[in-house]
Amino acid sequence: MIRIALALLWLAHWLPLPVLAPLGRGLGLLGYLLVVPRRRVCLTNLRLCFPDVSERERRALARAHFQWFGRFVLEHGIQWHASPERVRSLVQLEDEHHVRSLQASGQRFFFLAPHFLGLDLGAVRLMMDFEACGMYTRQKNRVLDAAVLAGRMRFAIGRTRLFSRQDGFRSIIRAVRQGLVFFYMPDMDLGARDSLFVPFFGVPTATITGPSRLAQLADAVAVPVVTRILPGGAGYRVKFFEPWQNFPSGDLEADARRINAFIEERVRELPEQYYWLHKRFKTRPPGEARFY
Q1: Helix (H) or strand (E) holding 173
Q2: For residue 175, what are the domain limits?
Q3: Which of 59, 143, 147, 204 has the maximal Cβ count within 10 Å?
């Protein structure tokens, strides 16, 4: 089954994006109807984050999210198989001057890249321009694992590499000190260890403190980056935000709140493309009931 799915992705990459996009939306609607456990996770997240929105509106948002997620899945064919020229033409860079000025000054920096659905293709596009590093979780299926790894690294330049979680945080610090740009995804629930419970849409949420520690230990500036999937066949847009001043602040909780507040702002701008299928609120404070 995995080999058939990978073959279909290879075939899909030949299609123009205006054709591929509606096919992805249709795949997403099918997923909304059939993948009941993930639909429940999505609706639970939306209920927690948007308690003032009606159930009907939340279900409409969930359906829209699944449609964008279908595109995310199907357009991996582009990420894994399209030519570099096509990827460059499809993925636009916005406010690139924020990072080019850091590069010119020799300042080390890393990307704060929250989980919007365009993240994967945006990261592949940036690996064409930056010696970078990222975190990689091995897939249980060997065929899929090889495909994912090859797809993420196919345009990598120079010393670019991926770390497994077993490599540890020190490996990332060393890489950033050596000038590699780390793609830091600050909105995954990795458990209570090295996390603080700070609000995300008003819900106490296990939030990692790693970005603050990386900024301090590697003397690196945090640059928020969000990749947006554009409607129809218009492609993708990677937006660089202004590098953060006074980060880290010396207060881990304040830094974590700042990260979550930034992500909240971006989610309100683009709610249908945030990764609602992840169990973001899985880890709860002691004594608090589980949501999922």
Answers
A1: helix 169-177
A2: 2-273
A3: 147
Task: Return the SS3 of 248.
Answer: coil
Residue 284 maps to a domain: no
Residue pair 281/203 in contact (Cβ under 8 Å)? The answer is yes
Residue 112's φ and ψ, nearest 5 degrees, are: -95, 105
Residue 154 structure tokens: 């196919």
Residue 17: Cβ within 10 Å count: 19
CB 241 within 8 A of CB 226: yes
Residue 197 identity: F
pLDDT in tens, 44-99: 999 999 999 999 999 999 999 999 999 999 999 999 999 999 999 999 999 999 99
Please list the helix, strand and coil fractions of the chain in percent, rounded to the nearest 5, in that order. 50, 15, 35
Q: Are 201 and 264 in contact (CB under 8 A)?
A: yes
CATH number at residue 235: 3.40.1130
pLDDT band at 194 (very low <50, low <70, confident <90, very high): confident
Query: Residues 6 or more apart from 111 whose CB is under 8 A from it?
Result: 126, 181, 182, 183, 184, 223, 224, 225
Overall pTM surpassing 0.85 (yes/no):
yes
> Percent of the chain having pLDDT more than 70?
100
In a domain, residue 235? The reply is yes
Q: Is residue 174 part of a domain?
A: yes
Is residue 197 in some structural domain? yes
**The total number of structural domains that make up the chain:** 1
H or E element that contains 205: strand 203-208
